[in-house]
Write a structure and sequence with these properties.
420 residues; 5-stranded antiparallel sheet; mainly beta; 31 strands; Neuraminidase
Length: 420
């Protein structure tokens, strides 16, 4: 089945929810009610379709053995696709795909979303395609900067232009006069825009771009170093200007002829949410697959947190070689691959849990899939699929001020992951 990326699974959004398209292949056998399913592997698969291998720099503190629940804390949003905590506060920014940035306050078991937009870019954002729109938000650790990533409307042959835009923040309010475009990338097609942005533990801004779309990476962007497409980028957002991108001197391709110095990692098809473990600095990337496999990539802080790493697209999908020719000896293996035969369609990256309310998850990586919907927990080399905790049509995760995890869906809901 031909498929694109995480937002393409939404065919129609309604008040009742989201109609999903893209779950390919057969059904995985159901566990009993409220029973998480385990897959324990050590470098090889216990089944032909779901594999995981541990590369953690430190062992998880928890054993992952817990029953979870998803508690809805907000409803009625218009396709929320990104969230970010405002450091030092009880508030979060929430991005709606059509182009609005909202502010929300955490109030016990509720997330009170102010319907008045902090920024309204709907007249500038291209969101006609299912993978276009305002897609990412990040706030600097000192809460002085807001960064948004989205597909902006353009005249001409491109399918919009991905732009990374910065504003200065004062008490959580962006200064309109400070708007600065840091990066621009014309999109050849309307899918695989990537769009995630986050500040790393080093204070640098990390940016994820997909391969430019169509299908099977026709321009070979995954393995090209002369384009920003299919890459994870790293820049100094505070020092960048509208005329000059400030590139850290230790980026892996600085000074290399024919390579873009902004590149941090490459070989990514459509990195749909990545995060850094707040305790270890490890990098986790959820990369949306093509026709067969979804994957989770992991780079330890000790190994450079992905510096210069080639994750393999379009030489491989997951751990499986494609017909594309090229040297595969240097490729980094994913730690998890998920088969479309089991109903997976678009992996949604999350976070390593540091929530003190759920000590069993401490050090475990939590993520989901837009079609399957169950919360997935990777603890060491064991992957647990929590049937009892679901969010269909998920788009993104976020952490709260006490390290609690939130997950949003295209249906307009935001839920918190709780112990049952």
């Amino acid at each position: 089945m031909r498929r694109t990326g995480p937002l393409a699974v939404a065919v129609a959004a309604t008040v009742a929810g989201v109609l999903l398209l893209g779950a390919c292949g057969g059904e995985e056998p159901e566990a009993g009610p409220g029973e998480p399913r385990d897959s324990t592997v050590a470098g090889t698969s216990t089944s032909s379709t779901t594999t995981a291998s541990s590369t953690s720099s430190t062992a998880p503190d928890g054993d992952g053995d817990v029953t979870l629940a998803t508690t809805v804390v907000a409803k009625g949003l218009d396709q929320p696709v990104a969230m970010a905590l405002i450091p030092g506060t009880e508030e979060m920014f929430v991005v709606e795909r059509p182009g609005r940035l909202l502010r929300a306050r955490i109030d016990g078991d509720r997330l009170d979303v102010d319907p008045r937009p902090v920024l309204d870019l709907t007249d500038r954002i291209e969101s006609a395609g299912t993978e276009q729109g305002l897609l990412g938000v990040a706030v600097s650790p000192d809460a002085s900067m807001l960064v948004l990533d989205g597909t902006f409307r353009d005249r001409g042959p491109s399918a919009g232009t991905s732009r990374v835009v910065r504003w200065s923040l004062r008490d959580g309010v962006p200064d309109p006069a400070s708007e600065t475009v840091l990066l621009s990338q014309p999109q050849p097609h309307a899918n695989h825009n990537g769009g995630h942005v986050t500040f790393g533990p080093d204070g640098m801004l990390y940016i994820g771009f997909g391969d430019g779309g169509s299908q099977d990476d026709p321009k070979g962007n995954g393995q090209r170093l002369d384009t920003l497409l299919a890459k994870l980028l790293r820049i100094d957002a505070a020092r960048s200007t509208a005329d000059r991108v400030a590139v850290p001197a230790d980026n892996p391709f600085v000074g290399r002829q024919g390579a873009r110095s902004e590149i941090w990692s490459y070989g990514l098809r459509n990195p749909w949410r990545f995060s850094f473990d707040t305790d270890t600095g490890d990098l986790w990337i959820a990369d949306v697959g093509g026709s067969l496999w979804e994957e989770i990539d992991h780079a330890t802080a000790a190994s450079g947190s992905g510096r210069g790493v080639d994750y393999g697209w379009q030489l491989r999908e997951g751990r499986h070689d494609t017909r594309t020719r090229g040297d595969r000896s240097h490729l980094a293996d994913p730690v998890v691959e998920l088969s479309h035969d089991d109903g997976y369609c678009s992996v949604i990256g999350g976070f390593v849990s540091r929530d003190p309310r759920i000590p069993q998850l401490r050090g475990s990586y939590v993520f989901t899939d837009a079609c399957r919907g169950e919360i997935h927990v990777l603890t060491g080399d064991r992957l647990r699929v929590h049937d009892e905790a679901r969010t269909m049509g998920a788009t993104t995760f976020a952490t709260g001020p006490r390290s609690e995890l939130y997950v949003a869906s295209l249906s307009g809901e935001i839920a918190r992951i709780d112990p049952a």
